[in-house]
Design goal:
481 residues, 8-stranded mixed beta sheet, 3 domains, 30% helix, FAD/NAD(P)-binding domain, binds flavin-adenine dinucleotide, alpha+beta, 22 strands, D-Amino Acid Oxidase, Chain A, domain 2
């Protein structure tokens, strides 16, 4: 019997798994995907918000501010990337200036840091700000991270500390057995004392397997983006927020940890929970909105567009509480923005709920840190020489755009959560994330995965089970690697 079973290995489930791995209990995480962070965690703005925006007194306000502070701890312990950009919140007219006054008061109540800055100072710091802007405030604690990697770091550390991560396990039924549960997946069944639902856009589907009246309905809300090439790094150094509206935070300009700039997102409620396509209408709308806050946007350097889906619900706030119908089943529902920021604080809240049920002791040997992984491209010349001398595979460039070597790819394949698909390698190493989007390196990555795992190339998947890129050999295979 497992003590705690978590459904979903996005940022919420991964943060919780790591938090619970500090205690003497058995924890298993199930995800239908073959890797962590393939849901909303994979496709968002990547901002660690300051907490100026959520309504006063809500869980969103409280967990956002606490989560923002906890990211600084995670940076030290797990070596996650964290870009201390700060942000500017900009107003264009009297109406927006009035809202800015409300937000000043809200930031104060929420405990978020907001500072005054003159227009001159703001334009000097960011020459590409729109000159239509009439007032700016600064949010110095706003940061940007790489959400995939945070989820991975959390889950890798959880696994090192004894958590079991079961990939490719889609939950299809949950049977309450008078206080405990049997959780059925497409291939297995797991018995657990406590079940925590962190299934993102599918949280209501999971809850419906246990409850007669699910207290929330997910209304998937799509956000589309442009990604501007990292060769335009420095186009904007702060996150730029317009004044928020009922639809959300609006179209932002967001520098990313690897140098790209995101322009977006849209905010459109859709029916299909998996409908993450981009649209001409959405992208055109972004262009119209973005020009209100920024000028000279280098759209001609767009390397890709993408969309993510927010697990929004009718209620404004996150739905975090034990089921009122079935004891020992706990909801982490409606985790839309600022869910990425709040995840470490949501994990603390869920941890306290578990501990209120049963007094699990803290482990005497908990490994809080994660080995720093320095990719070849980030090494100094001396480090590169030493790495090459120790392992000649550092001398073989697999991805020229992002300067990823064969050794980087091999290391990723053999980490505690293995990168055994093309996308998993891309997420960990950036092979395929650059300007050619994998055109040059993809066949090399397939060859290396096949070789390292001793499987045929036709069994190497793009991201999930049955997503193989190659179906059969049509001519003699290339042996680049
Ligand atoms: C466009 C957009 C912009 C955003 N920007 C920001 C931002 O800048 N800052 C911020 O703080 N937040 C932001 N967010 C919100 C943030 O991305 C989410 O709150 C967060 O990623 C939610 O994480 P999660 O782990 O709860 O859900 P997810 O990441 O969706 O994870 C849920 C997991 O559950 C798994 N799952 C689902 N069903 C099953 C099943 N039946 N069996 C097994 N596993 C299952 C999925 O495979 C998935 O891995 C944004 C979101 C979007 C979409």
């Amino acid at each position: 019997m497992i003590d705690v079973l978590i459904i979903g290995a996005g940022i919420t489930g991964s943060a919780l798994a790591r938090e619970l791995s500090k205690y003497e209990m058995t924890v298993t995480v199930l995800d239908k995907e073959m890797d962590v962070g393939n849901g909303a965690t994979m496709a968002n703005s990547a901002i660690i918000h300051s907490g100026h925006d959520p309504k006063e007194g809500t869980l969103k306000a409280k967990l956002n501010v606490r989560g923002n502070a906890l990211y600084d701890v995670l940076e030290k312990e797990l070596n996650i990337p964290l870009l201390k950009t700060g942000a500017f919140l900009v107003a264009h007219n009297d109406e927006e200036k009035a809202t800015l006054r409300t937000l000043r008061a809200r930031a104060k109540t929420n405990g978020a840091v907001m500072e005054e800055i003159s227009l001159e100072e703001a334009f000097k710091a960011e020459p590409n700000l729109s000159r239509d802007i009439q007032e700016v405030v600064s949010l110095p604690t706003t940061k940007v991270t790489f959400p995939w990697e945070v989820a991975l770091a959390l889950m890798e550390n959880a696994v090192v500390n004894g958590v079991t991560f079961e990939r490719g396990q889609e939950v299809i039924a949950i049977h309450p057995n008078g206080g405990t549960f049997t959780v059925e997946t497409t291939t297995d069944a797991f018995d657990a004392k406590y079940v925590i639902n962190a299934a993102g856009v599918f949280a209501d589907t999971i809850a419906g397997m246990v409850e007669t009246h699910v207290p929330y309905t997910i209304k998937p809300r799509k956000g589309e983006y442009f990604v501007i090439d990292r060769r335009e790094k420095g186009y904007m150094n702060h996150v730029i927020y317009p004044i928020p509206s009922k639809a959300g935070k609006g179209v932002l300009v967001t520098p990313q940890v690897h140098g790209e700039t995101l322009i977006g997102p849209t905010s459109l409620t859709i029916e299909d929970k998996t409908g993450n396509n981009t649209t001409a209408g959405g992208l055109n709308w972004i262009k119209n909105e973005a020009k209100k806050i920024a000028q000279n946007i280098p759209y001609h350097k767009t390397i890709r567009t993408f969309a993510g889906i927010r697990p929004s619900i009718e209620q404004y706030d996150f739905y975090i509480q034990e089921s009122t119908e079935v004891p020992n089943f706990y909801h982490l529902g409606g985790i839309d923005s600022p869910g990425l920021t709040s995840a470490p604080a949501i994990a603390e809240m869920a941890r306290d709920w578990v501990l209120s049920k049963e007094a699990f002791a803290l482990k005497t040997h908990f490994t809080a840190t994660r080995e720093k992984i320095t990719p070849f491209r980030s090494m100094s010349d001396d480090e590169k020489r030493a790495a090459f001398q120790a392992d000649a595979r550092y001398g073989k460039l697999i991805c020229k755009c992002e300067r990823v070597t064969e050794a980087d790819v091999v290391n990723a394949i053999h980490r505690p959560i293995p990168a055994d698909s093309v996308k998993a390698v891309k997420k960990r190493t950036r092979a395929g994330a650059g300007i050619c989007q994998g055109g040059y390196c993809q066949h090399n990555v397939i060859n290396i995965i096949a070789r390292e795992l001793s499987i045929p190339k036709t069994e190497v998947n793009y991201y999930n089970k049955h997503t193989n890129i190659l179906v059969r050999e049509t001519k003699e295979a290339r042996h680049d690697v």
